[in-house]
Amino acid sequence: INDRRGHDIGDRVLQQISAAILKSTRSTDKLGRWGGEEFILICPQVPAEHLSALAEKIRAAMDDYVFAAGGAALHLSISIGATLAAAHESFEAVLKRADLALYEAKNTGRNRVVFNINAE
Questions:
Q1: pLDDT exceeding 90 applies to what percent of the chain?
Q2: pTM higher than 0.70, yes or no?
Q3: Which of 118, 16, 112, 116 is nearest to 73 (CA)?
Q4: 72 in helix, strand or coil?
Q5: Residue among 53, 17, 21 nearest 36 (CA)
C-alpha cells in the first residue's frame, strides 16, 4: 500500500486494521504493531477451545472489511499464526511458535489461520 498509494494512506489503513481487530477482541486483550505490517495480539487466559473461533472471527472480519484508502476502497486479507502459551514458557518461545505458524499461513495461500499449539 505504501508503494502504490503512499505512506499516509498506508498509515490510515494500519489504523483501520487495528480498529477492526479490536472490535473482535475482549477488553483484556492487548494489540500492538509488531513490525511493518505485522501485529501481535495477546489474549490472556483464552481457553484453547476458543482460540480457533477468535482467530477465525478476526480473519473473517478483515476479509469482509472495506478499507478507505484515499478515495478508493481496498479489500485486504489477513494471515494469522496462533498459539497458546504454557505457564513455563518464555515470551520468546511462544512468539517463535506463533511466527512459524504465521509464515506457514502466508506460504500456504494467505488469508488463513494456522495453529501451532505444541510447546517444544
A1: 59
A2: yes
A3: 16
A4: strand
A5: 17
CA distance 56 to 50: 10
Identify whether 120 is a catalytic site residue. Answer: no
* Beta carbons of 85 and 73 less than 8 angstroms apart: no
In the structure, how many helices (H) and strands (E) does the chain have?
4, 6
Quickly tell me which residue has 517444544 as its cell.
120
Distances in Å between the Cα of 83 and the Cα atoms of 66, 70, 79 are: 28, 35, 14
Q: Give the separation between CA 52 and CA 37, rounded to whole angstroms.
A: 22
Residue of 37, 56, 89, 104 with catalytic role: 37
Q: Position 105: which residue type?
A: A
Tell me which residue of 21, 6, 3 sits closest to 71, measured CA to CA.
Answer: 6
Q: What is the pLDDT of residue 113?
A: 96
Contact in structure between 17 and 39 (CB atoms under 8 Å): yes
Helix (H) or strand (E) holding 81: strand 80-82
